[in-house]
Amino acid sequence: MGLFIRLSIHEDFLLEDERYESKIINHYLNMLVKQISLFSTLDGNESIEKFRIENLL
Hints:
By secondary structure, this protein is mostly helical.
């Protein structure tokens, strides 16, 4: 999962004409957060949601 996201971020940086680093990283962090939340406990989901609200919105 981490390797896929890392390679996808690199691909976006190389292929995008207009590079908005924060937008690209925010997009892939949101993808990672959603994937991790599928396997986390209720307490973990609360922590993930708190992180998402504080850092990714």
